[in-house]
User: Which sequence fits this backbone?
């Protein structure tokens, strides 16, 4: 392939950002412009010479604009191979003029869908002519330059300026690849929406749309390559947060930040979550965020060092002073006040992310895990409990304060790697046993970690799945636990309940487990 001079360009865009400046760049190179509808009006109003597509094809726009560019005069001009004598002959016999550049961005379907528009409005925002133009131009990128993003305008004009009005083969190949990725992503959003409209959680075919937000220095380990991609949901969180200070985010920063933020969103009261290596090492709620921080860090101050912190409210000066007193990798919150921002800036390497409003933890969306040769897809674990949904299976019922701590610990347990045991007291974790191959080890490690700091006397425990034997519960009882929340359902439930009754421990079952692998 060689550089390709451009004599004629077709412009049909929904997003008019930078359009006039780009067209002025084309005009400098004496490129004739074809355009449609609003794009043509925008260019004419700016004094740029334009031929409307309907005049070029001698066929009007019809069906409320659904039919504009779907015409052999247009697609023949794009798809014809310039080095093929038969194609050239057919172009001449049918009066088809070659088109060397296609500039298209698509109807804003995703934005329309997210706005809550009705079904008919969403359907009308499914672009048909645009993807057809893009795919035609990208297929014939040997001769045609396809532009699908206003962010590409400057690069294209610069390439043309360097090459006397031509584009290079390297740029055309790059733009073609981007074009197919864009139409694929566009169609995947529509397909997902249509599946949702039909009540299909897991349709026969599934694809996911995502756009690269940034390259990362490396992945989980330095020998791994990585990048961060954002999907079309634009949900508040680490991916879409504004980073107001600090070093570049790493793969592990982002992964831990997401884990912390997902957990802190579970709580309506002021809450602080500290995560280390994707597991919570301190979680607390309180009447104010500063107190919640004190309680959270007390659970495991050693692990909190170098941790990732998520907060579910606005950071004020009092909390900012405490955050800067400890080495932290990332702080993520909905917002900060001006005084807190000034205090945090003194720790210039700390990455501070602001998310805006918190997402609904009960939202219905999908999670995916890549496998060799495929992926596992499931709905998000958004199972929640209320006191009246629990079954008291022990002789003694929990006290009100125990019940509050049980529900608090249960939310934490949902976000701890399995097998998981969480000890809590007074709205704060005091010990966490995570990621163990046996539940008794998780109970033992949680108690041992707590003994170094807060201790587990008069705590409650949450278990992410049932106790297969009484031994794990016995470890917690010996550590001072007075109440237990667990799913139940083991063949040895009677043995486990009997152990609780023998120790005067209250036990409630949920009928719901929270494995997290």
Assistant:
């Amino acid at each position: 392939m060689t550089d390709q001079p451009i004599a004629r360009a077709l412009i049909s865009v929904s997003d008019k950002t930078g359009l006039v400046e780009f067209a002025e760049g084309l005009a400098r190179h004496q490129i004739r412009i074809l355009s449609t509808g609003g794009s043509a009006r925008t260019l004419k109003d700016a004094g740029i010479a334009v031929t409307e597509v309907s005049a070029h094809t001698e066929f009007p726009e019809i069906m409320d604009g659904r039919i504009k560019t779907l015409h052999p005069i247009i697609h023949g001009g794009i798809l014809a191979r310039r080095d093929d004598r038969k194609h050239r002959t057919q172009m001449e016999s049918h009066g088809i003029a070659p088109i060397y550049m296609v500039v298209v961005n698509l109807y804003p379907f995703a934005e329309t869908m997210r706005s809550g528009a009705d079904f008919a409005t969403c359907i009308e925002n499914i672009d048909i002519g645009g993807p057809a133009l893009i795919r035609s131009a990208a297929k014939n990128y040997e001769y045609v330059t396809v532009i699908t993003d206003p962010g590409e305008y400057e690069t294209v004009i610069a390439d043309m300026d360097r090459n006397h009005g031509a584009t290079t083969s390297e740029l055309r190949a790059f733009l073609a690849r981007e074009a197919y990725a864009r139409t694929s992503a566009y169609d995947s959003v529509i397909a997902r929406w249509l599946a949702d409209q039909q009540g299909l959680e897991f349709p026969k075919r599934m694809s996911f749309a995502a756009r690269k937000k940034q390259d990362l220095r490396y992945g989980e380990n330095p020998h791994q390559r990585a990048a961060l991609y954002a999907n079309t949901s634009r949900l508040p969180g680490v991916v879409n947060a504004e980073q107001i200070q600090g070093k570049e985010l790493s793969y592990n920063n982002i992964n831990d930040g997401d884990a912390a933020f997902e957990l802190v969103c579970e709580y309506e009261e002021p809450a602080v979550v500290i995560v280390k290596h994707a597991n919570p090492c301190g979680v607390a709620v309180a009447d104010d965020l500063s107190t919640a921080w004190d309680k959270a860090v007390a659970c495991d101050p050693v692990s909190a060092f170098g941790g990732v912190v998520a907060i579910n409210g606005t950071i004020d000066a009092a909390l900012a002073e405490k955050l800067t007193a400890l080495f932290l990798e990332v702080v993520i919150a909905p917002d900060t006040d001006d005084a807190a921002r000034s205090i945090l800036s003194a720790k210039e390497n700390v990455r501070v992310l602001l998310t805006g409003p918190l997402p609904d933890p009960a939202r219905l969306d999908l999670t995916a895990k890549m496998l060799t040769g495929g992926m596992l897809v499931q709905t998000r674990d958004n199972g929640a409990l209320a006191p009246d949904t629990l079954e008291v299976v022990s002789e003694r019922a929990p006290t009100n304060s125990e019940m509050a701590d049980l529900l608090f610990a249960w939310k934490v347990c949902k976000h701890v790697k399995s097998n998981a045991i969480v000890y809590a007291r007074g709205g704060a974790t005091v010990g966490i046993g995570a990621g163990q191959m046996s539940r008794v080890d998780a109970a033992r490690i949680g108690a041992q970690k707590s003994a170094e700091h807060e201790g587990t006397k008069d705590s409650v425990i949450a278990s992410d799945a049932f106790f297969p034997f009484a031994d794990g519960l016995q470890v917690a009882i010996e550590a001072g636990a007075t109440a237990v929340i667990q799913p139940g359902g083991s063949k040895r439930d009677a043995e486990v309940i009997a152990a609780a009754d023998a120790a005067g421990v209250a036990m409630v079952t949920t009928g719901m487990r929270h494995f997290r692998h």
Summary: The chain has three domains: 4-197, 243-382, 384-509. The first helix runs from residue 19 to 28. The mean pLDDT is 93. The domain at 243-382 is CATH 3.40.140.20 (Cytidine Deaminase; domain 2).
